[in-house]
User: What shape does this take?
Amino acid sequence: MDRFRYSTALIRNKPLKTIDTLNPTASESWQQQLNHAFSQVDALCHYLNIDMDSLPELQANASFPVKVPRCFADCMEPGNPDDPLLKQVLPLQEENIAVAGFVSDPVGDLAAMAEAGLIHKYQGRALLITTAACAIHCRYCFRRNFPYIDNQITPQKRHRALDYIAHHSELEEIILSGGDPLLLSDNKLEQLLENLQKIPHIKRIRLHSRLPVVLPARITPHLVQLLASGPQKTILVLHANHPNELSAQVAVACQQLKSRNITLLNQSVLLKGVNDCADTLYALSERLFECDILPYYLHQLDPAQGTAHFAISDSKALSLYHQIQSRLPGYLVPKLVREIAGAAYKIPLMR
Ligand SMILES: *Cc1c(COP(=O)(O)O)cnc(C)c1O
Ligand code: SF4
Assistant: This one.
């Protein structure tokens, strides 16, 4: 029992205790932080000192429920109902308005399902759905309507997906996605990585995760060790849409990953009211590089049902793009792309 040692340390070292009292999440494990995520808008607004009346009309019981980790809320500006991070998580009434062209599977994932939970859409790489769960519920998400229930990953299904990968020697890269693959326990992730590491034609393992940004406590030394230990290259594609998401804590998590040679890239989605402004996109690229992350993709929104209020026109997207292109070095300009069902790659937007 270390309890006594810690309590003496606290008495001797008063500042430590003060920090813990001010910031209760600092001492919580990532699992605890996840359990304590906000699931109600009123609690979140109370925390942020925002008057609910200053918000647009909200849904009472959204079928895609609210979920916001406290550390992500801590990156929001208290008192600001227009905060760009808050906008990403508010369940607006508008989501229920049907809009032509906004559909349940906008990118043709279901048609590209090679096995349950394995999407083989592009040459040389396939995407494995590891879990349906996410640490945050982003209202613009194209997977918000995904029939995860029909695609639950039983051990048999996982086995069939791994078998498919083993028998398709043209696959050089496996992308772990979801949901969020870093919500798997260390044990489950280790098992999965071990299985993939055994397949000789797999050169790269890529993870698409929002966790280093929205729950940086997930980046534990043990996880970093797991991700870095295999013979293959590991690539982690993060997902931040606004520079305010990249807190000091996020920067530290990224440093730890980077120090073990994990390649860090970022993808963002263009979102009305969040980052549809050249200054914001410019600052995002700058902040990403400070955190050792290179901008990879800037996605034009996938037209998923319930997300139309985030859409911006292609001409606006291109105009923003040309502005950042003229202000940033080439390596800090993400590729502006749109995903089109059935296409061989993510299609660059062009005038
Ligand atoms: C985006 C995506 C990929 C990866 O595409 P890259 O251009 O290599 O980043 C692979 N599979 C699926 C199903 C995807 O949606
Ligand atoms: S899949 Fe990504 S974008 Fe969608 S809700 Fe989960 S974290 Fe957000």
Remarks:
- The longest strand covers residues 233-239.
- Residues 1-22 have pLDDT under 50 and may be disordered.
